User: Which sequence fits this backbone?
C-alpha cells in the first residue's frame, strides 16, 4: 500500500483543533501585548498552532518530511512578495532622504483641507491604484505621504489609513493591470474586461458609501492643529530639505514604470535607486548633516545613501513628532513583516496539505442550497482562507477551484464566481492582522491593523453587498439554457 493511501482524511474535530488553538493564542497575544502583538507574539501563536496541526497530521499517517515540503512550498509562494517588501523598505528610506515624501507632505499641507481630507485621500489612492494596478505600491508612496499630512493637520492616522486602504483596494480591484483582477477571472473561467464591468455593480455603491462616511467623519473632525502649527511644520520641512517639485520625479518614474507594466519588484527597486540619486543631487546639506561628522563629501554621500537603502534614515529636528514623520524605511524595517508572513504561510500550508481547509468547505457547501447561501458560503470561505492561509492569492485560488463546478451546476455565469472571489478574497485581506496584506499595510503606513481595520469602510461594505445581492437575486448573471444544459449533461 502506498504512503498516500495510508493518510487518513481529517475529521471535523481534527480541522477545528488548530484553528481554535490559533484563535485562543491570538486573543491572548492581543490581550497581553496589544498593538505590539505583531512583533513576535502573533508569530509564536502561528507556529504553535502549526505544531498542533503537524501532530494531528502525523496521527493521521503523514510524516514530517512531506509536511516539511508543504511548509517550504507555502513559504516559497511568498518569496516574490518578500522581494517587493525589501524593495519598498529601500524606497521609503531613499524617498525620505531625497525629499520626495517630505515634498508631498509639504504641498499636501497647503492644498488639503481637514474637512474633506479623508475623502480626498481615498479618491487620490483610488486613482493612483487604478492607474498602476497595485494597492501595495499606492500605499507605499501616496499612502505614506497622506499619513504624514494627516499628522501635520492633527487628523487621525487610523482613519487616514482606512481611507488609503479603501481607495487603494478599490483602484486595484477595477484595474486591468492588477494581478488579483487577472487571477480571479482566470480561476473562474470568465473574461477579464467582462469581469471588471460586472464588478462595478458591487464596487461602485461600496466606494460611494465609503466616501460619504469619510466626508461625514471629516466634517465632524475636531483637529488638534491650526494654521500656525501647519505653518511651523511647513517651515521645519523647508529647513530640513531642499523642497521643490523636482523632488517628485522619483514618484513620476515609479508611476510610469507601473503603467508600462514593469513587474513590481524591479519597478520599486528602480524607484528606490532614483530616490538615492535624487538625494545626492538635491539634498547635499541634509546628507552632510547626517554623515556624523564625516568631512569627505564622497564618503558622506556613500554612507548616508547606502544606509538609507538598508536601514532607512533618522532625522533629528528638535520636534519629536516631525522626527517620527521623517524617519524610517530601509530593508531592515521590513524584517518583522517578513517574519510574520513566513509564520502565517507555514501554518496555512500545513492546513491545506492535511485537507483541513477542504473539510471546512465540504461542510459549508452541503448547507448551501440557494444562490444566496452559495454566494455567502463563497464569501465565508474566502475570508476563512484569508484567516488561515494569510494570503489573498490563496483566498482567490482555493475557493475558486472548490466552487467552480458547483456554480456551473447551478447555472450561474462564471462572472458571478469571479466577482465574488474578488469581493471577498481580495478585499478582506488587509483586515486580518496576520495576513500578508495587513502586515504590509501596517509596516508601510505605521498604523496597526487593529486600529485601521474599523475604518476600511469599502473593504467591509463590498463583501456584505455581494451577499445581499445573492439573497435578493439582484444582478446575478445566469448561463444561457443551452450552456446550462451542456454543463448538466457533462457533469
Assistant:
Amino acid at each position: 500500500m502506498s504512503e498516500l493511501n495510508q493518510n487518513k482524511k481529517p475529521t471535523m474535530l481534527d480541522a477545528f483543533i488548530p484553528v481554535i488553538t490559533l484563535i485562543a493564542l491570538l486573543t491572548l497575544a492581543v490581550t497581553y501585548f496589544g498593538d505590539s502583538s505583531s512583533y513576535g507574539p502573533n508569530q509564536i501563536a502561528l507556529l504553535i498552532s502549526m505544531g498542533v496541526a503537524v501532530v494531528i497530521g502525523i496521527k493521521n499517517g503523514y510524516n514530517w518530511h512531506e509536511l516539511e515540503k508543504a511548509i517550504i512550498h507555502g513559504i516559497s509562494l511568498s518569496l516574490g512578495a518578500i522581494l517587493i517588501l525589501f524593495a519598498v523598505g529601500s524606497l521609503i528610506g531613499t524617498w525620505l532622504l531625497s525629499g520626495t515624501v517630505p515634498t508631498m507632505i509639504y504641498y499636501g499641507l497647503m492644498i488639503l483641507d481637514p474637512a474633506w481630507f479623508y475623502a480626498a485621500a481615498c479618491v487620490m489612492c483610488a486613482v493612483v491604484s487604478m492607474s498602476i494596478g497595485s494597492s501595495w505600491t499606492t500605499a507605499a508612496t501616496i499612502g505614506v505621504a497622506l499619513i504624514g499630512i494627516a499628522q501635520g493637520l492633527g487628523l487621525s492616522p487610523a482613519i487616514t489609513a482606512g481611507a488609503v486602504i479603501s481607495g487603494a483596494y478599490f483602484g486595484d480591484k477595477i484595474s486591468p493591470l492588477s494581478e488579483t483582477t487577472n487571477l480571479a477571472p482566470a480561476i473562474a473561467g470568465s473574461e477579464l474586461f467582462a469581469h471588471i464591468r460586472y464588478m462595478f455593480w458591487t464596487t461602485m455603491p461600496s466606494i460611494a458609501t465609503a466616501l460619504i462616511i469619510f466626508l461625514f467623519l471629516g466634517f465632524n473632525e475636531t483637529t488638534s492643529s491650526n494654521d500656525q502649527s501647519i505653518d511651523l511644520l511647513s517651515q521645519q520641512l523647508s529647513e530640513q530639505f531642499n523642497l521643490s517639485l523636482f523632488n517628485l520625479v522619483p514618484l513620476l518614474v515609479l508611476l510610469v514604470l507601473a503603467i508600462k507594466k514593469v513587474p513590481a519588484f524591479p519597478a520599486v527597486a528602480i524607484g528606490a535607486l532614483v530616490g538615492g540619486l535624487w538625494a545626492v543631487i538635491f539634498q547635499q546639506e541634509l546628507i552632510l548633516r547626517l554623515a556624523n561628522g564625516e568631512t569627505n563629501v564622497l564618503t558622506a554621500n556613500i554612507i548616508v545613501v547606502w544606509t538609507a537603502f538598508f536601514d532607512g534614515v533618522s532625522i533629528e529636528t528638535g520636534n519629536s513628532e516631525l522626527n517620527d514623520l521623517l524617519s524610517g524605511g530601509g530593508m531592515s524595517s521590513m524584517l518583522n513583516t517578513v517574519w510574520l508572513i513566513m509564520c502565517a504561510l507555514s501554518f496555512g500550508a500545513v492546513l491545506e496539505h492535511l485537507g483541513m481547509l477542504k473539510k471546512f468547505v465540504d461542510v459549508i457547501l452541503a448547507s448551501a442550497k440557494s444562490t444566496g447561501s452559495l454566494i455567502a458560503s463563497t464569501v465565508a470561505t474566502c475570508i476563512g482562507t484569508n484567516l488561515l492561509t494569510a494570503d489573498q492569492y490563496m483566498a482567490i485560488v482555493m475557493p475558486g477551484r472548490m466552487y467552480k463546478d458547483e456554480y456551473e451546476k447551478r447555472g450561474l455565469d462564471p462572472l458571478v464566481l469571479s466577482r465574488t472571489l474578488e469581493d471577498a478574497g481580495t478585499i478582506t485581506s488587509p483586515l486580518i492582522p496576520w495576513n500578508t496584506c495587513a502586515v504590509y499595510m501596517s509596516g508601510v503606513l505605521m498604523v496597526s491593523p487593529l486600529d485601521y481595520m474599523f475604518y476600511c469602510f469599502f473593504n467591509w461594505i463590498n463583501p456584505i453587498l455581494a451577499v445581499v445581492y445573492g439573497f435578493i437575486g439582484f444582478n446575478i448573471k445566469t448561463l444561457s439554457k443551452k450552456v446550462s444544459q451542456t454543463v448538466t449533461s457533462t457533469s
